[in-house]
Design brief:
- The protein has 156 residues and is an all-alpha fold.
- Helices cover 71% and strands 0% of the residues.
- The longest helix is centred in the N-terminal third of the chain and has 23 residues.
Amino acid sequence: MNDTNLTTTTDAAEAAERLIAEFRALPADNDRKREIITELDANAQALPFLVSVVADPGEYDLARVESATVLRLWPPADPALRHEAGRALLSALRDPDEDLVRQYAAMSLAPYTADPVVATVLNTTARADEDPLVRDSARFSIEEAHRLQETGAGGP
């Protein structure tokens, strides 16, 4: 790794730490939380934090939605964190009080279907969920998973 990459990685880690600290200091329903998640987009240093936001049913719903979206667009390369992210999205999918979070969780599961549990739950959701928008989001995710597998872009 050259000095430029080290500086970039250090800068990204510092930016993530600063934004995460700001996020945690905000009241539960503050819309700045959603903005912070957007600012963390594509910052690999923030992925474990985003996984925790998605998994937390007490967290601000729009922050959870944004986190699910980022995890769909930038799934973790690390297999253990990728597994954890898929399971966090499944947890969000099962949240009975948050229809919008459930929709985005279902839509974000495509990169995680190598996990048989994720694939099974996603297929069941696409066929039988009581919310038609969640069903449609799961169907979208299944189609996206097939496309990712065909192109080899799905990762591990």
